[in-house]
Amino acid sequence: MFEKTWGFRLFFWSTLILIGLFIMFPLYWMLNTALKPAAETLVPTLVPSHPTLSNFWKVIQDPQLRQYVKNSLFTAGVSSILATFISAYAGFSFSKFRYRGRKSFMSAIMISKMFPYGVLLLSIYILMQRYGLLDSYTSLILAFVTFTLPVGTWTLKTYFDEIPDEVLESAKMDGAGWMLIIHRIIFPLALPGLVSVAIFGFVLSWNDLLYSLTLVTDPAKRTLAPGLVMKYIGESSSDYGGMMAASIMVSVPVTMIFLVLQRFFIKGLTAGAVKG
């Protein structure tokens, strides 16, 4: 072990403080702007001269924003659950079965993650238009499931790889079928991995702007990200205080979900990173 000199301590703590400021300052600036009245939002001050909670109160009272939250909860929740189950079945198939084309299919799923979202939007938009799914929640849910599947499948595959084959053989000897084995034995053992994929899919769907803005144009069906942009950002004027207040409040559900399930999330990602 090398001796920690004063120079090392200075470098360590300076770096730690800079990283902390880099991460926390944008959050502080959001709160700072949200507490300012409309006349002060464009004035760059570190502390509001006349702090107010009016921006938060307006957000709470706005029925349109509550509708955006409901829409986002529905699309993010449904797509997260669907993506988790499909990823679980696909990951289990890749992990425990051997069949022709398995490796090629696995590689194709992972390669699909390399394409930029903007490029994929062109083909997805045409596909949704052809099947009459534009301007519907179905188009968003299918798009979100598509984006979650590659990461979810590989994460759960590596998790299932850690489950001994002897567990499956023992269950089959007791007369259990594959569906019973998967739902009663495999999925409970892989619960941290399932939760981590579900959280990943939910956050990805909750924060999406590009696809939500393109595939859904009906104001009543908009989700949070495009709803906030369309409501608070205008050509002639913008309500930055209201947007920051709304952004802070709509981030609470995701933060609470992560705080409650963080031990599963961290365990699931760690297990998925051990073996490829």
TrEMBL record:
Domain of life: Bacteria
UniProt cross-references to CDD domains, sorted A to Z: TM_PBP2
ABC transmembrane type-1 domain mapped to chain residues: 69-261
Subcellular location: Cell membrane
Primary location: membrane
Positions of transmembrane segments: 12-31, 73-92, 104-128, 140-160, 181-206, 240-261
Entry keyword set: Cell membrane, Membrane, Transmembrane, Transmembrane helix, Transport
Xref: InterPro entries: BP-dep_ABC_trans_perm, MetI-like, MetI-like_sf
Matches recorded under Pfam families: BPD_transp_1
Membrane-protein topology: Multi-pass membrane protein
Family statement: Belongs to the binding-protein-dependent transport system permease family.
This protein's name: ABC transporter permease subunit
The species this protein was found in: Paenibacillus plantarum
